[in-house]
Automatic annotation (TrEMBL):
Keywords: Cell membrane, G-protein coupled receptor, Membrane, Olfaction, Receptor, Sensory transduction, Transducer, Transmembrane, Transmembrane helix. Residues 41-290 form the G-protein coupled receptors family 1 profile domain. One of its GO terms (cellular component) is plasma membrane. It comes from Bos indicus x Bos taurus. It comes from the Eukaryota. Gene3D superfamilies: Rhodopsin 7-helix transmembrane proteins (1.20.1070.10). PANTHER family: OLFACTORY RECEPTOR. GO terms for molecular function: G protein-coupled receptor activity; olfactory receptor activity. This is Olfactory receptor. Belongs to the G-protein coupled receptor 1 family. The keyword Cytoplasm does not apply. The chain crosses the membrane at residues 26-48, 60-86, 92-120, 140-158, 197-225, 237-260, 272-292. Putative odorant or sperm cell receptor. InterPro entries: GPCR_Rhodpsn, GPCR_Rhodpsn_7TM, Olfact_rcpt.
Length: 312
């Protein structure tokens, strides 16, 4: 018998829910429907933000970026996951695994930064209203959004390259439905300490730090809002922030629950199901939250839809 190559792995097997065929058939229509809603909802947010001139503001520019991020994030794994749910061939090439890992890490990292930028935008709009047009200029919006995308991509490329250069000693069964970096690192037979250090530093910089910045921004917003003399003014200030705050709580709440809870020695299928649902549900709910909690988005959507109907 020929010895197993200690470094080269041409493809990985994504175990996912392969031991639960009934669950696979249940998840397929559920995830398909949620993915479709995610695509339609977020595409609608982007289209309305572009087509309605009243929404050409920093707040909706960043919201459009968030919607594009959600489309990209779900598209990195959901289409392949849907194919695997109905197929016995659940493999992914080495390069495809690296690409999926990199893109999912990049979009997740960028969303952490973008949510902090959106909180800063709301802080300037409410606490510095007279200087807001100058402080949050069109150029600065592009710089902040561009920096978030570039930093997220650079971080993810670095982490992916370090992880995928490790020897796997022929191990190819990933106990996950996607090429999640922690699941892939469990297959490595070399020293993973460098990769783990990069992941730890990245997690600290992109989870507690942006979250602390968001909390500080909303503390200052709350203090400013409570000083507003009129009830109508306070209601308007709260309504412009409530949607973003709900998205922040949803995003960080699920991430903290998944990665801060005590780890069991054996992977449970319930954890895998929850991971699938939160990964698909969160991007789906973002446009729903913004459309339900924001009158401007609803009015703009009705206006654009009416314009489309009239042009027919």
């Amino acid at each position: 018998m020929e010895p197993v190559n200690s470094t080269e792995v041409s493809e990985f097997f994504l175990k996912g829910f392969s031991g639960y065929p009934a669950l696979e058939h249940l998840l397929f229509p559920l995830c398909s429907a949620m993915y479709l809603v995610t695509l339609l909802g977020n595409t609608g947010i982007v289209a309305v933000s572009v087509l309605d001139a009243r929404l050409h503001t920093p707040m909706y520019f960043f919201l459009g970026n968030l919607s594009i991020l959600d489309i990209c994030y779900t598209s990195t794994f959901v289409p392949l996951m849907l194919v695997h749910l109905l197929s016995a061939q659940k493999t992914i090439s080495f390069l495809g695994c690296a690409l999926q890992m990199c893109l999912s890490l990049s979009t997740g990292s960028t969303e952490c930064l973008l949510l902090a930028i959106m909180a800063y935008d709301r802080y300037l709009a409410i606490c510095r209203p007279l200087r807001y047009p100058v402080l949050m200029s069109h150029r600065l919006c592009w710089l902040l959004a561009g920096a978030a995308w570039v930093l997220g991509l650079c971080k993810s490329v670095t982490e992916t390259v370090i992880a995928m250069r490790l020897p796997f000693c022929g191990h190819r069964v990933v106990s996950h439905f996607t090429c999640e970096i922690l699941a892939v690192l469990k297959l490595a037979c070399g020293d993973t300490s460098i990769s783990e250090v990069f992941l730890l530093v990245g997690a600290i910089l992109l989870l507690p730090v942006p979250l602390a910045f968001i909390c500080l921004s909303y503390t200052l917003i709350l203090a400013t809002t409570l000083r507003v003399p009129s009830a109508a003014g306070r209601h308007k200030a709260f309504s412009t922030c409530s949607a973003h705050l709900a998205v922040v709580m949803l995003f960080y709440g699920t991430v903290i629950f998944m990665y801060m809870k005590p780890k069991s020695k054996e992977a449970h299928i319930s954890d895998e199901v929850f991971t699938v649902l939160y990964a698909v549900v969160t991007p789906m709910l973002n446009p729903v939250i913004y459309s339900l909690r924001n009158k401007e988005v609803k009015e703009a959507a009705r206006k654009v839809w009416g314009r489309i109907q009239t042009s027919r």
